[in-house]
Task: inverse folding
């Protein structure tokens, strides 16, 4: 077997690629695995590359073509869906009638917040940035009990503040008032 009959993965990638773009080495390795081909010359040690015989390269190309055909096959997922049955329509109607129950469950989940929260707990539950929270405390829009690390916030106050902070105008007003409190004008 001549040395020109043996190809490294890079050579196979160049040969199999289309439009001047070679396949990636990882893709070639995938097709080698699909073709169940072993290298004619094992690569190991410093700089030795695994090399594949020309007949094995043809098997790899065949595996590539089969994979491409499988990938390009039109999906039948949309054509096999069935129209909604009356049972499914009834189920959707039932879900709408139980909407009030769902709201009750959501309210119960919201009430699972502890009544008095630390700053970290309030930030975690609301998802607000810490800077917004600090602005609300600074301007007095977010009431607190205690001082320093022992400061606690009531869940109703935290919820109200979080809902209001989602409005851009209110956020701007809070930022302005917090800045005024930090640097009073003389």
Result:
């Amino acid at each position: 077997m001549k040395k020109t009959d043996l190809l490294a993965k890079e050579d196979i990638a160049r040969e199999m690629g289309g439009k001047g773009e070679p396949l990636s080495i990882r893709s070639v390795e995938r097709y080698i695995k699909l073709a169940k081909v072993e290298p004619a010359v094992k690569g190991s040690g410093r700089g030795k590359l695994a090399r594949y015989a020309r007949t094995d390269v043809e098997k790899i190309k065949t595996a590539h073509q089969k994979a491409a055909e499988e990938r390009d096959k039109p999906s039948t997922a949309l054509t096999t869906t069935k129209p909604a049955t009356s049972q499914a329509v009834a189920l959707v109607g039932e879900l709408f009638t139980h909407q009030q129950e769902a709201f009750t469950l959501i309210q119960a989940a919201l009430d699972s917040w502890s009544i008095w929260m630390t700053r970290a707990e309030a930030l975690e539950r609301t998802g607000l940035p810490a800077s917004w929270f600090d602005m609300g405390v600074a301007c007095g829009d977010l009431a607190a009990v205690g001082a320093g690390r022992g400061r606690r916030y009531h869940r109703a106050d935290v919820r109200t503040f979080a809902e209001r902070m989602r409005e851009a105008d209110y956020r701007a007003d809070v930022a302005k008032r917090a800045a005024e409190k930090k640097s009073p004008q003389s």
